[in-house]
Specification:
single chain, 289 residues, alpha/beta, 31% helix
Length: 289
């Protein structure tokens, strides 16, 4: 009688890849697949590189946690909305950090960004193999308050707009330094919030020379310093009055997938051309619009 251990390596690998097909939008989906690693030693050996391609830092509800999953949870007593779940610590503990390719972040409070900043700094120092492998960065921000909470003010020390922006820009620089090889960047949630926009805009500009995939649900600021290249083939943007400043930075001829939302009535396809250009605009490689 055949056992799971007697299957050829390539068959077992295909089974695990099929069983774990998911976008892993939330860490709860990922944890639901961890049981596959306990089937046998072979499944664990094959499954760890597959599952640990995905790492998370996500705000979650303060629900009781199962005792079979060793997740890092950061919280402040009495403040349920401050709870964050992450598998970064677990990946580092079992030596799986080197497999990480996709990093998904979901924040609901400004203090979550402070914690993220600290975790990246500490793990970059202790587990330097973790961050350079990240190729896909997904940042979902649901910070929608008009002011900082009491806890946020305690953590940041100075609640002035300048102090907040400096902290956001510093976090962006740390992210770019730790994760230099990102080619896919997704900005979602309420990313128009002043509590996160300086960080997401700065990251988009810093990553612009190497991005092949950019999706933003918020209108981006003027990209005077952006340097998009022919590598960019997927673009999904929400436009605003800055469209004339952003779109000329996009190499339209190489785009394969293009989606623009919140387009105003004065929009012109000529926005993709530098001002004063007289050449024809041709989307040579466009497949979906």
């Amino acid at each position: 009688m055949l056992s799971v251990n007697s299957l050829p390596f390539v068959i077992t690998e295909q089974i695990l890849r099929y069983a774990t097909i998911s976008d892993y939008d939330h860490i709860s989906t990922w944890t639901g697949h961890l049981c596959l690693l306990s089937i046998c030693q072979q499944w664990r050996h094959i499954g760890i590189p597959i599952l640990y391609k995905h790492i998370f830092f996500q705000a979650v509800s303060n629900a009781p946690e199962t005792n079979t999953i060793n997740l890092t949870r950061i919280h402040i007593d009495g403040l349920d909305q401050k709870v964050v779940a992450s598998n970064i610590g677990l990946a580092c503990q079992i030596g799986a950090a080197r497999y990480a390719k996709h990093f998904k972040i979901r924040v609901k409070e400004f203090c979550h960004l402070n914690w993220l900043f600290s975790i990246i700094i500490l793990s970059h120092r202790d587990y330097p193999e973790l961050w350079p492998g990240i190729q896909s960065l997904n940042l979902q921000s649901y910070i929608c308050k008009d002011k900082l909470s009491y806890v946020d003010e305690l953590l940041i020390g100075d609640s002035s707009t300048n102090a907040i922006n400096e902290r956001l820009l510093l976090t962006a620089r740390i992210v770019k330094l730790a994760m230099p090889n990102v080619y896919s960047f997704v900005i979602g949630g309420n990313a128009d919030s002043d509590f996160v926009k300086p960080m997401t805009d700065n990251l988009a500009i810093e990553y612009s020379p190497q991005l092949s995939y950019l999706l933003s649900s918020s209108a981006l600021a003027s990209y005077s310093d952006a340097q998009f290249t022919d590598s960019l083939t997927y673009l999904r943007l929400s436009l605003d009055k800055n469209a004339k400043n952003i779109l000329p930075k996009i190499p339209a001829q190489q785009l394969e997938h293009l989606a623009l939302s919140d387009v105003n009535e004065n929009f012109s396809w000529k926005y993709f051309q530098p001002e004063g250009s007289s050449t024809d605009l041709v989307f040579n490689n466009l497949k979906t619009l």
